[in-house]
Design goal:
2 domains; 19 helices; Growth Hormone, Chain: A; globular; mainly alpha
Length: 422
């Protein structure tokens, strides 16, 4: 619990810095002459860099530890915020987003840390708590960013975010312990036998297996939500006359809803419905929220969409990630969570670019309701997930090793003995 508390403080402050500048990006870009399509490219640039490095961060953390990867990501992120502060063109904004994505590639490492430090039955709750903490950062950050720009001008939000990143990196260096010192240490004793390239290929080729299915569900949901919500300022400006001085408060509402659901409802609902059924409900609620936002012509319907979207994501993402942590072996947990963010990053590249294109040609609401319809495509992938056996149990590990023997023709008995599955 001590390890998790320190990590949650780190994640909260890091998210405050991120949430300070992201809502300002569309306003800065349009001032430099960018249209909605270019804004979509800038939004996607973060995910391009993230998807390239996330599996590498994950594998490095499996081998050398979660702590050094998290610290390195924070320092890289601080550099990105400084670049953002002094950006004078679309090209420099693009550079800042790419560097930010390099640092943000450690999100899978953070989730793997939580999984290391939590008992299998409590992982979804712990991941939900992590989401609640970051959502709280998303509540504070946008309003803080709008306040900073009102006080200190255009450079103030970026410099303040960079200062927060350096501050939290120092805090983590002093207080954040390595998660492999937790009881889960034994699961890290064996180096991952799977390379990032092999893991990515397995998700594509063996998409019916539990882990790949979970990764595809996550990817479609994350792309539909984050790929469009970052273009919300353009929709609100068009329909409600929102400006860069007030956008932070709208984003704050979305984050606030996420905090309430994750901190007060998620644990109880998981106990009652289980992760698989709650994932289905999350998909439906997310789809409904996106559709409402897209077709809204008044503030009431927009706020309904802004309520349903965080409700859906609060149910969907922690459950999917919690299930993923239980169907992969412990010494490959960081790798597969990194792969999850690689595929999620791919969808976060495609969705904003497509959304910007659709906004320019078919109207500002089109990408939202269309993304909502696409989310429903993931529903069939959720069926049957309730029968997944957690990989943390000896029986499940034995089954995994037998499956490996099926593929390779070898039965690694010594690995079973090492991991206590014999």
């Amino acid at each position: 619990m001590t390890r998790l508390l320190v990590l949650f403080v780190t994640a909260f402050v890091d998210m405050v810095g991120l949430a300070m500048i992201v809502p300002l990006l569309p306003f800065y870009a349009t001032e430099f002459g960018a249209d909605a399509t270019i804004v979509g490219v800038l939004v996607s640039a973060f995910s391009v860099a993230q998807l390239a490095v996330a599996p590498l961060w994950g594998r490095m953390s499996d081998r050398y530890g979660r702590r050094p990867a998290i610290l390195a990501g924070l320092l890289i992120t601080a550099c990105a915020y400084v670049i953002f502060a002094f950006a004078g063109s679309v090209h420099v904004l693009l550079l800042s987003r790419l560097v930010q994505g390099l640092g943000g590639g450690t999100i899978g490492v953070v989730q793997a840390y939580v999984a290391d430090a939590s008992a299998p039955a409590r992982r979804t709750r712990s991941l939900g708590s992590l989401s609640a903490v970051t959502s709280l950062g998303a509540v504070v950050g946008p309003a803080f960013g709008s306040l900073m720009i009102a006080i200190g001008g255009r450079t103030a939000p970026g410099l303040a975010a960079a200062a927060l990143a350096v501050l939290v990196a120092g805090f983590a260096a002093r207080f954040l312990a390595e998660s492999r010192e937790a009881p889960a240490t034994a699961s890290h004793a064996v180096r991952p036998a799977t390379s990032p390239r092999q893991a990515i290929a397995r998700v594509i080729v063996h998409w019916r297996e539990p882990a790949p299915r979970l990764i595809w569900i996550y990817s479609l949901g994350i792309g539909a939500f984050y790929g469009t919500v970052q273009l919300v300022p353009l929709l609100l400006t068009n329909r409600l006359g929102v400006t860069e001085r007030t956008i932070g408060y709208f984003i704050m509402y979305v984050g606030g809803m996420g905090v309430i659901v994750r901190s007060l409802l998620l644990g109880r609902v998981v106990d009652r419905l289980g992760e698989a059924r709650l994932s289905r409900l999350g998909l439906v609620l997310l789809a409904a929220g996106l559709v409402c936002t897209g077709v809204a012509t008044n503030a009431a319907l927009i706020f309904l969409g802004f309520t349903l979207m965080p409700l859906g994501t609060a149910f969907l993402f922690p459950c999917v990630t919690g299930l993923l942590s239980r169907v992969v072996p412990g010494n490959e947990r960081g790798l597969y969570m990194g792969v999850q963010h690689t595929f999620g990053g791919g969808s976060r590249v495609a969705f904003p670019v497509a959304a910007g294109f659709l906004m320019d040609r078919l109207g500002v609401g089109t990408p939202f309701w269309l993304s909502g319809l696409l989310v429903l495509v993931a529903l069939p992938l959720v069926w049957g997930l309730a029968g997944i056996v957690p990989a943390d149990t000896p029986v499940a590990e034995a089954v995994r090793l037998v499956a490996t023997a099926d593929v390779t023709g070898e039965f690694p008995v010594e690995k079973m003995v090492e991991r206590g599955a014999g």
